[in-house]
Write a structure and sequence with these properties.
263 residues, mainly alpha, two-stranded antiparallel ribbon, 10 helices, 76% helix, globular
């Protein structure tokens, strides 16, 4: 058990490194790490992931803000509808999902299986987002109406609540193509949204789950240390190449999760 916990803390350091290096992908590693290595069920794992990613993104927001790469006005505009959706989905939607969703003869689709498969699908989308090179010249010249931002925030917030992901890989392209924000500033702005969404979503879990605070806080602290190291090393590593490599890695993990859950 001690060896497993040690591996878990090493994994937390890697989670932080990834966040520090590419500005996202923390939940992509955190949830499988908690489920397959440390043995937590997906509901608890996604809850813990929200806290780890939220606290880590808060540190990242501060670092990006010092460089002038956070648009707080736009960030809060996205956050308002999104954090409502995250909180409500964690507080009411996730607990209301039945343990067995549907049965086909001897095969049953359980709640835990459905959450992990849905998470894997989100990972596939994330991997495509990281592998595909985006061009700032493709973004629109005008900002979208707020009602579209509101609807989009609700949709992404619900996804965030279901899978325990920060949603950064969804917000970055949204901020670039619809809010007309440059890529670097979109990454920084997405962190403030991820921070608010994740931590408020976690509040919904506090009311329904028994939280192992000592483990969660220590895991998060190590992840934050990883972020600091990741930001330092990011000066020496090309971000675009790193994102593509991590995108391929994410794709392989997603395929593994689907295979493991279906079989």
């Amino acid at each position: 058990m001690e060896n497993t916990q040690l591996l878990g803390y090493i994994g937390a350091l890697v989670v932080g490194l990834v966040l520090g290096l590419i500005g996202g992908g923390g939940s992509i590693l955190t949830v499988p790490l908690l489920v397959y290595l440390l043995g937590y069920n997906p509901v608890v794992a996604t809850a813990y992931s929200l806290f780890v990613v939220g606290a880590s993104s808060m540190v990242g927001t501060y670092q990006k803000h010092k460089k002038g790469l956070v648009d707080f006005k736009t960030g809060f505009a996205f956050s308002f509808p999104s954090f409502m959706a995250v909180y409500l989905s964690r507080r009411y939607l996730v607990p209301s999902i039945p343990d067995t969703i549907i049965s086909f003869g001897n095969y049953s689709l359980t709640k835990d299986m459905a959450i992990m498969v849905f998470f894997a699908i989100i990972m596939l989308l994330a991997s495509i987002s990281m592998i595909k090179k985006r061009k700032e010249s493709e973004q629109n010249s005008t900002k979208q109406p707020y009602y579209k931002t509101f609807i989009q925030g609700i949709i992404i917030g619900t996804i965030t609540g279901l899978v325990g992901a920060g949603g950064g890989f969804l917000y970055v392209p949204a901020l670039v193509f619809w809010a007309n924000i440059p890529m670097k500033k979109a990454v920084g702005t997405s962190l403030i949204i991820v921070t608010i969404n994740s931590l408020i979503g976690f509040l919904g879990d506090v009311q329904t789950l028994d939280i192992e605070w000592i483990f969660l806080l220590s895991f998060t602290l190590i992840a934050v240390i990883g972020i600091v190291l990741g930001v330092f090393f990011s000066k020496f590593i090309t971000g675009e190449k790193l994102k593509k490599s991590f995108g391929v890695f994410t794709l392989l993990i997603a395929i593994y999760i689907i295979y493991k859950e279906i079989n």
